[in-house]
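Deliverable D5.2: sample structural annotation.
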Amino acid sequence: MRIATWNVNSIRTRVGRVVDWLVREDVDVLGMQEIKCRPDQFPVEPFEEAGYDLQIHGLNQWNGVAFASRLPMTDVQHGFTRIPGFGKPPKIEHELDDDGVPIEARALGVTIDGVRLYSLYVPNGRGLDDPHFSYKLTWLDRLREQVESTLAADPDLPLALMGDFNVAPFDADMGDPSFVAGESTHISEPERQAFHAFESAGLTDVVRPLVPEGFTFWDYKRLRFPRNEGMRIDFVLGSHAFADRVTDAAIHRDERKGDSPSDHVPVVVDISSEGDDDDMPMIFG
């Protein structure tokens, strides 16, 4: 099964690119982030014509996550246990967290052929002294708790978190000179600690062993892409049962080229069918 994650930065703007890429690269499952639309606004027809079913979690013109799959999706979950919200209480009907704060459309879980997948759009953080930064850290911590409880209940579950984590966990993952240690988000110690905590929760970066170098995001401004001043902030983190089935991985850098690209590119992993992995290489974190 070929699985991918892609922050598409508005699916209505880039539906042609996304569907063309799905078909061309023979992708079975795509987790999307920043779809920036409600389900009723999502361009469903091109996906269905290409043979993909959809699960969509979007509330407005911001955020939003989705799955496109050629295989059946079950156990659909919007958000995760104790997901925190952000912002002021809404004037219209909206799902709220335990503190009465609106929950954003940033997490979507599905099960496909026995594999549990989450498409995630982690909060940006905005600034080290911004309330959104505390929200980001709480969001990551609650997600880690969800992973720990899930794997405690089923240690052999093939589970993967996929998406835009808005964290560059190592110095080599940050090539944008405008991000300065001690002053900027994405590279702060608390964010990196929150990211690495997923390892103690039982997950490993399944792409890095096969693709040790490469960025997944380049800002539109200041010629960041031609200068290769990007960041590696899009990941697939898998449980041991998922990682043991990974046979290949790639970062599709060329999707940052051409007309009207997203500022992110797809990250792809191939996994073997269950019971088919005796001769596959082991992937260690």
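Annotation notes: The domain at 2-271 is CATH 3.60.10.10 (Deoxyribonuclease I; Chain A). The chain has one domain: 2-271.
The annotation will be released with the project's public dataset once the embargo ends.
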